[in-house]
Every structure is written in structure tokens, then in C-alpha cells.
């Protein structure tokens, strides 16, 4: 494969402030320690960060590759590590969650209260027959009971499968059946965009007829009317009545902790399997070091819903393992007003904030006047995750949200990796807008060509992970062949994990993510990244959001087709297509100039905010539009295709 063309030039640099660097948790010697003996490093981190009932003697067993065992002869209880030990250490009064419902109702949950709730829930679940290895599906809004349910399942050594509350009955049924879940924990409904959206009817449909589900436990939240079946039990009846004494049993480090189905832009969802000791070690380590967590004083807010991996690792397990105080919010960012997130940052004095580029760009679209109305001076670290963050959004995030002073950590990782893999460390790294930069200490990453040969500086290729890591997935539930095939077959000779992302090194050897490799186009023999062209487009003052696809072209192999949303002030921009196509040509080079450019009102996105380029490609290549069931809003596609058909 030829190198991904290195066409973007970004020269802004942001070194850490001296005070920040001096007080930072992560100091440069971390990199040295990890480099000198990787396994000893992870063993030290695990012993330091976690309580092991039975200490491990073996760090990594890779003899059954690609299925790893980390800390295999040790025993621990994940929930004990997240709860009881903090209470026993005298931190029972520390707030675990400042929770806020969308309508403005709020709850403060301390570590002592959360521990007590989880013990009750564990007793209740055990009474319903849940034990080690059983699967429990969780289909809840972003409310404290979601955390309680996850930890209660973990405490019993059972396996949770959290399904995002936006998924349909069909998707929920497929996930329940695939995992053979015997219990579902849900709610009557939750608040979203100013209304109660019902969840219970979706569960009713998903478990009707033949189903492995024996019981459905229902949290009262929306107070909407629900139909009742003989499988149903109210959470407040069974959990409130249960004893709050429960001794946590220690399980093997490799005891499965959860299954999480990837949102996947293509193919049948994969049940990604994670286990206990290695997962908790790496999420705790990265949460502490990447975000520079000082648990006594920081207030951390990861905006992800618990239904996504980011919610699992950085709204639940990482913060709780570290005894941190988090904010948790039920609703949408713009309800009841577009400054809702900034209002919450002001109210709870959030100091570390972690969100996705898609959210940042949608706030950019609304303008800086909205966040300017709130006091955001408590913020000291900002994070980004989920897709490449274009330099313009990065700089806007730092200037407008971070007051021009906060470091931004752009964190690359996946559902499969379980925890952050590539990121700056805020007290050490000189930051570059748009680059995820360097592997986390103890993580081995390379960029290689199609044959697995490492590429050089200023060259691009495929991102691989060259050594097993503690939080790595242990398989695809029920389909270990697919696990080996999907991630380990491409570079079987070298034994590398293939992440499916394109990346390049810059001239300093820092890593830039270029999007999924199926999002890379080949135009006249040049490899162009959709992300790179999108970044150029949103760098134009008129553009709020952009999506780029490669469409078949007789002459060039593929041609660039762009879909853009204009900022409201530019809605009337004349000849937007000519202007923006020329802008891309100037910013990147004539080779990247879109063959066609369409101004649209919305882009098709999955519920986690990822643009479904596959659907846009269907339009650009004149095909019938494929499966749209994972779209957040399915009407978007007909509007875009009508527009396309009407164009000259
Ligand atoms: C955590 C999460 C994983 C895919 C991944 C990549 C993209 C995530 C990124 C990023 C560039 C970043 N991705 N973080 N791309 N820079 N900082 O998002 O997991 O939902 O499984 O998605 O997201 O393409 O392969 P998941």
C-alpha cells in the first residue's frame, strides 16, 4: 500500500504549563518505567491501583493467543474495588455521582450510599437466581440505577450486557438472544428532549414469545403508564426490600465482566467480551494519568451514555476504581436550552470534561456566545474521543470551553481495546491540535504497510497493536473464529492486532488517526482520508459539519463526494459548492477537490454520533440505500437522496 498522503499542515503547538506539569500525576519517568519492563510496569500499576484478595504471580499468559490471560492466578472483586474499599478507607462521604435528570431533578450519591445500594441490588439479583457467569441485559436511561445494576452484576461475578436505550426492540432482542440473558433490567421510561420516552414497551416486544429472559426488573423513572406481564418486577419492590449486607466474593482475574455489542457501521453486531483484572487495571490507570485525576479535588464528567464503551470505562469503572467524583446527566445537551452542559459544568464545578468531536462541532455551530454565559473556569483538562478531532474544533474547544488554557487530550481507543491506547499525557506532552500523538505508557502501537512492515516518519499506513494489553477484548461472544478472523488474521505472521484504522506518523513520529480504513479513498492512486478532507471543509468559516465519501469514478478510480451542513449565518451562501470545492483544493491540493459537493440540512449518524458514510456512498454511487436501522433518525436519508436527485 502506498502511504496515506500527508497533506494536512498543522503547526500550532501547546506545551504544558510549568505549574500543571509540576503538579501532574503522570511524570516523564512513567514512560521509562514502562519501556524498561512492560509486564513489570503493568504488574506494579495493578497492585498499586487495585485490591487483590489473592495476589497474582503471573502477569501475562499469551500461550493461547489471541486470547490473553492477565494476572491469571489472582483473584479480586470488581465491585469491591469500585465501592467497599473506598468506604473502608474513610471516603464513604465522598460524592460518587452528582446526577442530574433532564427535567432538572438532581441526586447526590456518596460512595457509602452507592455501596449500600449495590449490596441490596446484588442480594435481590441473587434471589432471582443470578450467579457467576449468568448474563444480565441492562436497558436503562443514564440514571444512577444503571451504575447500581452494572456493579451488582459484577459483584456476583455475573456478566452484564448494557444495551443503549436508543436501540429498537429488534436490536435488543438480537442482543438478548445472542448472550442468552436470563434477566433484563429496564425502566418504565426516561427523559429525552423534554419528553418521557418509554423503554418498557420495547423490552416487552423484545422478550415476547420465546426468550431466554425469566424476569424483567423495572426501575420507576419516567412514571409513564406501563403494561405488566408475569415476568415483571418493580426494582423498588425487590431492591428496597433486600438486605444491605453483602460480602463480595473474590473471582478469578479472567472472570468475564461484560459483553458490549459494537455499534458497527457494517455487518452483524459483535459481542465484545471483557474480563475483570486486566480491564480494571488499564481503565483505572488511564483514567488517572490521561486526565490527571486528583480524586480529592477533581470533578470529572464523561458525557457518554453508559450504553457505550466510553460510558463503561470512563463514566463507571475508571472513576469508581479511582474513588473519583463524577457528574452524570440523563438528557440531551440542548434541553431545555442549548447551554445545558455549560450550566452543569458551572453548577458542579467540573474540572475534567470528556466528550466527542461531534458534540464539539455542534456547539461550534451554535457559536461561542452560549458557553460565554457560564462560568467554566473550573475546567482544567478537556478530553476528546470517538473520531478524529479536526484542528479547528480542537482549537475552538480549548479557546471557548477551556478559556485558552486547558490541555486537550485526544484519546484513541475502541470498544475492543477496553481502555485508552493512544493519547497525550497532559503534564508531559506538547500538544498538537488534531493528533492523538503517542501510545499510553505500557502500550505498543505501530503503523505498518499492508505487509506489516513499519512505515517511517511522515508516512501513513494501518494502525496495529503489537503486544497484548491488559484491557484487551478476550473474544467475540459465541464466535471465537470471527474474533481471530476480524482482528488477528490480517497480520497473523507478525501476531499484530489490526484495529481497522488508518493512521500516519508526522515528521516528529506523532500519530494522527485518519479514520476507518474503509473510509480511505483512492483517487488516481493517491490515498486520501475522508477525515482529512472533512477537516479542511470544516476549516472553512461557512461549514458546520462535513462528511466525505469515495464514489466510483471511471477515470480516477474513486472520486471525492462531499456533503456539508452550513453554519446558520451562511445559509444563503451563493455558489457554496464552487467556493468550498476550491477551498479544499487550496487547503489540501487539487487531487482532493470534491467532484461534487452537496449542501444538506442533516447528516446520517448512528446513535453514538458516527457518520454512516456507507449510506452517503450508496447515494453518491446511485445505489438503493442500504440498511438504515442503526441510524438515530431514519428520515434523514430520504431528505438527502431527494436533494441529490434534484441536483443538476
Ligand atoms: C472509544 C470508541 C472505535 C473507533 C476507532 C476509531 C474511532 C475513537 C478516536 C477515533 C480518531 C480518536 N475513534 N477515538 N478516531 N481519534 N481519538 O469510540 O469506541 O465506539 O468502538 O469506536 O472510533 O475509528 O476504531 P468505538
Automatic annotation (TrEMBL):
Signal peptide: none annotated. GO terms for cellular component: cytosol. It comes from the Bacteria. Its EC number is 6.2.1.1. Mg(2+) binds at residues 538, 540, 543. ATP binds at residues 386-388, 410-415, 501, 516, 527. Acetylated. Deacetylation by the SIR2-homolog deacetylase activates the enzyme. Residues 532-610 form the AMP-binding enzyme C-terminal domain. CoA binds at residues 192-195, 310, 524. GO terms for molecular function: acetate-CoA ligase activity; AMP binding; ATP binding; metal ion binding. One of its GO terms (biological process) is acetyl-CoA biosynthetic process from acetate. The modification N6-acetyllysine is found at residue 610. Keywords: Acetylation, ATP-binding, Ligase, Magnesium, Metal-binding, Nucleotide-binding. Transmembrane segments: none annotated. Catalyzes the conversion of acetate into acetyl-CoA (AcCoA), an essential intermediate at the junction of anabolic and catabolic pathways. AcsA undergoes a two-step reaction. In the first half reaction, AcsA combines acetate with ATP to form acetyl-adenylate (AcAMP) intermediate. In the second half reaction, it can then transfer the acetyl group from AcAMP to the sulfhydryl group of CoA, forming the product AcCoA. This is Acetyl-coenzyme A synthetase. It comes from Pseudolysinimonas yzui.
Amino acid at each position: 500500500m502506498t502511504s496515506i498522503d500527508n497533506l494536512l499542515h498543522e503547526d500550532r503547538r501547546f506545551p504544558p504549563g510549568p505549574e500543571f506539569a509540576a503538579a501532574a500525576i503522570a511524570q516523564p519517568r512513567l514512560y521509562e518505567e514502562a519501556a524498561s519492563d512492560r509486564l513489570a510496569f503493568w504488574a506494579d500499576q495493578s497492585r498499586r491501583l487495585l485490591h487483590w484478595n489473592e495476589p497474582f504471580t503471573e502477569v501475562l499468559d499469551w500461550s493461547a493467543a489471541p486470547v490473553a490471560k492477565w494476572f491469571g492466578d489472582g483473584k479480586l472483586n470488581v465491585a469491591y474495588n469500585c465501592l467497599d474499599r473506598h468506604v473502608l478507607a474513610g471516603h464513604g462521604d465522598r460524592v460518587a455521582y452528582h446526577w442530574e435528570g433532564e427535567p432538572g431533578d438532581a441526586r447526590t450519591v456518596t460512595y457509602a450510599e452507592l455501596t449500600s445500594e449495590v449490596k441490596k441490588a446484588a442480594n435481590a439479583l441473587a434471589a432471582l437466581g443470578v450467579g457467576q457467569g449468568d448474563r444480565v441485559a441492562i436497558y436503562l436511561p443514564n440514571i444512577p440505577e444503571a451504575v447500581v445494576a452494572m456493579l451488582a452484576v459484577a459483584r456476583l461475578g455475573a456478566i452484564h450486557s448494557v444495551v443503549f436505550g436508543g436501540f429498537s426492540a429488534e436490536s435488543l432482542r438480537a442482543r438478548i438472544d445472542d448472550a442468552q440473558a436470563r434477566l433484563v433490567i429496564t425502566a418504565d421510561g426516561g427523559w429525552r428532549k423534554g419528553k418521557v420516552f418509554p423503554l418498557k414497551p420495547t423490552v416487552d416486544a423484545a422478550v415476547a414469545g420465546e426468550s431466554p429472559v425469566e424476569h424483567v426488573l423495572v426501575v420507576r423513572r419516567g412514571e409513564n403508564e406501563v403494561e405488566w406481564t408475569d415476568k415483571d418486577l418493580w426494582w423498588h419492590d425487590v431492591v428496597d426490600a433486600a438486605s444491605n449486607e453483602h460480602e463480595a466474593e473474590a473471582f478469578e482475574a479472567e472472570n468475564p465482566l461484560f459483553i458490549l455489542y459494537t455499534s458497527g457501521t457494517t455487518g452483524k453486531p459483535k459481542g465484545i467480551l471483557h474480563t475483570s483484572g486486566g480491564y480494571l487495571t488499564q481503565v483505572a490507570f488511564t483514567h488517572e494519568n490521561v486526565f490527571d485525576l486528583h480524586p480529592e479535588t477533581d470533578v470529572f464528567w464523561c458525557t457518554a451514555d453508559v450504553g457505550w464503551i466510553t460510558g463503561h470505562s470512563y463514566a463507571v469503572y475508571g472513576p469508581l476504581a479511582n474513588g473519583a467524583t463524577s457528574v452524570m446527566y440523563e438528557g440531551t445537551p440542548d434541553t431545555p436550552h442549548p447551554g445545558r452542559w455549560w450550566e452543569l459544568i458551572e453548577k458542579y464545578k467540573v474540572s475534567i470534561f470528556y466528550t466527542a468531536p461531534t458534540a464539539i462541532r455542534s456547539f461550534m455551530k451554535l457559536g461561542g456566545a452560549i458557553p460565554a454565559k457560564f462560568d467554566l473556569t473550573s475546567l482544567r483538562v478537556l478530553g476528546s474521543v470517538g473520531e478524529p478531532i479536526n484542528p479547528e474544533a480542537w482549537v475552538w474547544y480549548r479557546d471557548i470551553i477551556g478559556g485558552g488554557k486547558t490541555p486537550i487530550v485526544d484519546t484513541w481507543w475502541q470498544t475492543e481495546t477496553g481502555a485508552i491506547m493512544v493519547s497525550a499525557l497532559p503534564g508531559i506532552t506538547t500538544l498538537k491540535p488534531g493528533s492523538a500523538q503517542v501510545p499510553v505508557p505500557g502500550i505498543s502501537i505501530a503503523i505498518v504497510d499492508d505487509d506489516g512492515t513499519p512505515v517511517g516518519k511522515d508516512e501513513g499506513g494501518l494502525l496495529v497493536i503489537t503486544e497484548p494489553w491488559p484491557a484487551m477484548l478476550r473474544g467475540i461472544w459465541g464466535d471465537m473464529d470471527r474474533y481471530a478472523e476480524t482482528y488477528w488474521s490480517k497480520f497473523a505472521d507478525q501476531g499484530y492486532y489490526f484495529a481497522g484504522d488508518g493512521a500516519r506518523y508526522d515528521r516528529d513520529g506523532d500519530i494522527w488517526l485518519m479514520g476507518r480504513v474503509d473510509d480511505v479513498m483512492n483517487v488516481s492512486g493517491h490515498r486520501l482520508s475522508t477525515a482529512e478532507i472533512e477537516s479542511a471543509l470544516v476549516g472553512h468559516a461557512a461549514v458546520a459539519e462535513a462528511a466525505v465519501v469515495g464514489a466510483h469514478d471511471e477515470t480516477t478510480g474513486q472520486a471525492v463526494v462531499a456533503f456539508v451542513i452550513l453554519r446558520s449565518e451562511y445559509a444563503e451562501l451563493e455558489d457554496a459548492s464552487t467556493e468550498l470545492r476550491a477551498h479544499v483544493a487550496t487547503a489540501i491540493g487539487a487531487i482532493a477537490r470534491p467532484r461534487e459537493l452537496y449542501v444538506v440540512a442533516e447528516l446520517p449518524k448512528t446513535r453514538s454520533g458516527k457518520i454512516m458514510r456507507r449510506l452517503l456512498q450508496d447515494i453518491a454511487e446511485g445505489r438503493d440505500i442500504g440498511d438504515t436501522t442503526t441510524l438515530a433518525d431514519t428520515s434523514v436519508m430520504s431528505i438527502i437522496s431527494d436533494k441529490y436527485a434534484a441536483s443538476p
